[in-house]
Amino acid sequence: MNFVLRYTNGVEVQLYDVVKTVIGNIGVIEKILVPGSIDAEECFVADMGGVWIQENWNGKPGYLVMQADDIPGWEDTTFIRRGSSDDLLPRR
Fold first, then answer.
1. CA dihedral for 12, 47, 67, 83, sign (positive or negative)
2. Are 32 and 41 in contact (CB under 8 A)?
3. CA–CA separation, 43 vs 76, rounded Å?
4. What local confidence, expressed as pLDDT, does residue 92 receive?
5. How far is CA 14 from each of CA 7, 82, 92, rounded to the nearest angstrom?
6. Distance separating alpha carbons of residues 58 and 8, to the nearest angstrom
7. For the segment 33-92, what is each residue's pLDDT rounded down to a tens digit?
8. Taking the chain, what is the end-to-end CA distance rounded to the nearest angstrom?
9. Contact 14, 29 (CB under 8 A)
C-alpha cells in the first residue's frame, strides 16, 4: 500500500522529520501509521492512519498520535527539517 501524508505546505511526511507540533513542542515523527497496520490499530487510527510523534517535554519524551484526517492538527503542525533517529530522545 502506498500511504503518503503531507504537511499543509505540501512537503511529504517522512520518518524522523523534525516538527513543531500542534501543542507547540518540538517533536520527531517516530512512526508512520499505515492504515490497517498493527501499529495503526494499537494507536486507534486503523482506518485512516496517521503519525506517532515523540515530543520534547523539557528533555523528557512525550508522545502524540495525529490521525491522517486531523485537519486542525495538521494545520498547526510545522515541518522544520528532515531528521534522523539521532533526533529522538532516549526512552526512559
1. negative
2. no
3. 21
4. 65
5. 10, 8, 25
6. 27
7. 999 999 999 999 989 999 999 999 998 999 999 999 998 999 999 999 999 999 999 876
8. 33
9. yes
